[in-house]
Write a structure and sequence with these properties.
Length: about 230
């Protein structure tokens, strides 16, 4: 049964407000403290409500993903695709599909640092979507351009452990994407700002002068820019 905390929060806030302001003469000088207390209660219940909503959403998504297939990239669960029948519009399997992924997604919480970067999983999903829709692997040419804090998902275990105190969970997926033909390119400007050494990058990742020049370079070669971040 779904739980909605919004009414409870409103009623609780009103109840506390009435209690705390029942005697105005005694509590008027404490109004700032009262306001802070009420705001704290609202924030607490809002976070609880958001967590419950996220849990419901994840549960529904996991149920859907139980039906997913993984025609090429198999490591990322959220990289799976749902089979669709009776299609009336499909990609032309004779064409070359030149895709360029913009990757900046950071691990923004302790939990996310321990799991696959969701943007890398989205890269896997886009590839699987094309394969499932009938595009031959040989007709896919994909470049992933990493910059900003997304770069930390592309470093070796040792520097990742030094920063986050755990192994880099993205390494197996990066390896599988590379084996599937994905070219990884990182922004030298962002590397400099984030103090990431070239030697810290996973094997096979190419260093560019900047993400912007990479976008213009590959854009002029006919690559379609796609944002894979949340």
């Amino acid at each position: 049964m779904a739980v909605d905390f919004r009414d409870d929060v409103s009623e609780l806030s009103l109840f506390l407000y009435l209690i705390l302001t029942f005697n105005k003469n005694r509590l008027m000088h404490k109004f700032p403290l009262t306001l802070i207390f009420l705001l704290s209660i609202n924030i607490l219940f809002s976070q609880t409500r958001d967590s419950a909503a996220a849990a419901r959403r994840d549960s529904l998504l996991n149920a859907k993903m139980d039906k997913a297939i993984y025609p090429l990239i198999k490591i990322a669960k959220m990289g799976g695709v749902i089979p669709i029948n009776d299609l009336e519009s499909i990609p032309d399997p004779r064409m070359k599909y030149k895709l360029m992924f913009n990757f900046t997604q950071a691990a923004t919480s302790a939990v996310k640092k321990k799991v696959l970067n969701s943007a890398l999983a989205e890269a896997a999903r886009i590839i699987n979507l094309h394969i499932a829709a009938g595009v031959p692997k040989k007709n896919l040419e994909i470049v992933l351009v990493g910059h900003a804090s997304g770069l930390f998902s592309l470093i070796k275990n040792e520097p990742y452990q030094k920063k986050f105190k755990i192994d880099n969970p993205n390494i197996p997926l990066v390896n599988e994407l590379q084996e599937a033909g994905v070219t990884f390119i990182v922004c030298g400007q962002a590397m400099n700002f984030l103090d990431i050494e070239k030697e810290s990058l996973l094997p096979g990742i190419k260093l560019a002068y900047s993400a912007k020049t990479t976008f213009s370079n590959y854009g002029m070669k006919g690559f379609l820019l796609m944002d894979i971040n949340e």
